[in-house]
Task: structure prediction
Amino acid sequence: MAPAYRVALVAFPGIRAFDVSVITEVWGTDRTDRAAPAFDLRRVATDTTPVPMRGGLSLHPDRTLAWLSRADLILVPGLDDHLTPAPVPVLDALRRAHARGTPLAALCGGAFTLAQAGLLDGRRAITHWNLIGLLRAHHPLVDVVPDALFVEDDNIWTAAGTAAGIDLCLHLVRRSHGAEAAATIARSMVTAPFRTGSQAQFIEQPTAPADRDADTLAAVREHALRHLHEPLTVAALAAHAGMSPRSFARHFTAATGTTPLRWLLDQRIAAAQKLLERTDLPMPEVARRAGFGSEVTMRQHFASRLATSPRAYRAAFSTAPATDSATSADGSSPIAR
Result:
């Protein structure tokens, strides 16, 4: 059995209870009975004195900062007051961890803590859209990305507000343990298993002006997921929706926060990941079922979006083969649905 993946939650007065809860729900719940990875989540602070949080809550650390040297991943929650100064020992420990090559991830206003440590100077970072001006004003050396859910630069991850923290946590699980592990956790949390960091923080029109438009776009997405193995185009999807390509693209982006092409590529990558994990299908067949057309095209998209190759991904995350059971009557992949 593989050793548990060691995750450190850095705690000090002023951290947000919501972000602590998200981190605890993702990495602190035992789901090994559902074939999820084993995690060892530790709450780390300068000492083991209870850490006060807003609303009369408190967090009881079970390790001191020395444990960070053992962590595979270090997480920094957001802050209730975004200018709360972190204890100097915490900032020093975060600097040492980054120098060792340990991945660091901050949720929402946790970016301010990493910025205090100087770790975001000259690097791309994101925070809640309403805090972007504040982050720029107090940390002008940070390259603040104005519109994303989460970003990575030099092994440092930052996320936008609230729900984007869940997206980043699931992405980090996917990155280290595969898409199926992230999907298992997402199902348990009843949340979306796959939103890419490049998606907009908020959508222009969260509620469609008419139920008809919302139903039409949902039906188009369902159609696309059932036909990923086919050569889908924006024009074809627009025709399925009964709209012009231009009108369809505008409505789709307003409703989802991403373009039809980017959404379609995200779904193809997710489908390929699942096929690589669950089956021993040859690479050309994986590429066909996921809708890439060729192994070369799939490899190019894996390199640009996941910084790895399909073969390396399979080697890292493959489970028991299920080639025969993954085939439907029309040759499409039910895994992608």
